[in-house]
Specification:
With 324 residues, the chain is mainly α. The protein is built from 13 helices and no strands. Helix 1 runs antiparallel to helix 7 (132-146), helix 3 packs antiparallel against helix 12 and helix 4 packs antiparallel against helix 7. The longest helix is centred in the N-terminal third of the chain and has 27 residues, at 2-28. The termini are far apart.
Amino acid sequence: MQRFMLILFIASELCYYLLIAQTGIVEYFSSNLFLIAPLPIGGVIGSLLVSYINIENKNKIFIFLIIQLMMSFAYPNFNLITLFILGIAVGSLAPLIVNEIKKTSLIELGLALSISYVVGTFLFNYEVSNRGFIAIFLTIITLVTTLFLPNLQNKKELNTTSHSLLIMVLWVFLDSALFESLSRDTTISIWRDGFTMEIALFHIIGVFCALYFNIEKNQKELLILTLFALSYLFYFLREGFILAFIYPFVISYYNVVILQSIRKKDFKTITLYMIFIGWLASGGGLFVALSNLILFVPLTLLIAIIRVITKDYLPNKTKEIKYV
C-alpha cells in the first residue's frame, strides 16, 4: 500500500508541474515574461528556503501542498502575488519530491515517471483556461498520498552515475528551448497533430531504457546530446512523425539520468541543483524560444558534443603522478 502511494505521490506532483506550472500558466499568460516572472522568482526562493525550515520533511510537504491547493482554486486568474506564492510552493516541493524518490525502487520510479508522462501527454491539448479542476484534483491526490508515504529508503540502491551540474543544465535548456518553440509553432506540433499514442509510448520506452540499460557516463552524455541534435534536426525539417518518436524518448531518458544523478545528494545540495535545473535552465530555454533564437541552439549542441567526444582523449594529469 505504501509503495503504491509513493508512486502516486511522485506521479501526481510531476503531472501538476507539467500541466499547470510549466504549460498551463505560461500559455494562459501568452508567454509574457513580465507577467509570469513571479512564478520562477518564487520557485527559486522556495527552493532556497525549504532546507532551512527545521521540521520533518513530511510536514513540509503537507504545508506546501496546502498552499498549492489554495492557489489552485485561483487558477488561472492569478495576479503577481498569487503567482509568487504558487512559485514558492512548487519550488519548495520540487526538492522534497526528489528526496522522496530516494525511497523508490527501479520499477517504482519507472511507473511513477511513466504515469506522469502519459497523463501529461493525453491532457496536453486540454484547454489551459479550464485546467483548474485538474490542478485541484492532482493536488488532492498528492495530499492524500502524503499520509501514507514510507519512512524508510528502499534498501536496493539504483545504479547511478554522477553527471556534472553543467551538462544537466544544458540538457534542460535544450529541452525547454525546443519544447517552448515546438508548442508555439503552428506549422508543426506533435501533440496536436495526432501523435499522442506514439509520444506516450516512447516516453515509457525512454524511462525504462534509462533505468535498465547501463552504459558508460560519457557514452550516456553523448547519446543524450545526439538525440537532442536529431530532435532539433527533425524540428527544423518539419518531420513531425519522426520527431514524435525521438523527442519524447530523449525527454524521458535524460530526466531519469538527472534523477539518478542527484538522488544521492544531501538535501541542501538537491535544493541548489533544482534552482539551476528546474528554474534557471528552463527559464533560459523559454527566453530563447520567445526571442526566436532557436536557430543558434545547434551551435551550442555542436560544441557540447565535441567536448564530450574529446573528453576521453584529453591527457589525464592524475596519471602523471609518480609515487616514490
